[in-house]
Design goal:
It is a single chain. The chain is mainly beta. The protein has one helix and seven strands; from the N terminus they run αβββββββ. Strands 2, 3, 5, 6 and 7 form a five-stranded antiparallel sheet that branches. Strands 1-4 form a two-stranded antiparallel sheet. Strand 2 and strand 3 form a beta hairpin. It is elongated.
């Protein structure tokens, strides 16, 4: 879980009362990135499984894609909508049961 979002050595980290502050659009973008979800996307991250050849990502039970890394950004979603995502590990001809999570995109 991401607990903070920082941009090093720039106007965004100078804090309140200083010359530069977050513009509203910058703040909302950073907040989306820190929480791992936006209005039309979510970032899925999971613990890599030893020996895995890849992972299959599902959205609402339908296969979306296969990836080799333990993360995937799902784009093209609707704002303020719930989705259930699943990830199955690919190991040769075997496929693990899906690990599932339900998330709601930002308003």
């Amino acid at each position: 879980e991401i607990c903070s979002y920082r941009v090093g050595c720039c106007r965004h980290c100078w804090g309140e009362g200083n010359q530069y502050q977050w513009r509203e659009d910058e703040y909302l973008t950073a907040l989306d990135e820190a929480t791992g979800k936006g209005k039309t996307w979510v970032q899925l991250d999971w613990t890599a499984r030893s020996g895995a050849e890849g992972y299959t990502v599902y959205k609402n039970g339908a296969r979306q894609t296969s990836v080799v890394y333990s993360q995937y950004r799902v784009n093209g979603l609707k704002a303020n909508t719930s989705y259930t995502f699943g990830v199955a590990t690919l190991d040769g001809s075997r496929r693990s049961p899906q690990a599932k999570i339900t998330v709601r995109t930002a308003k």
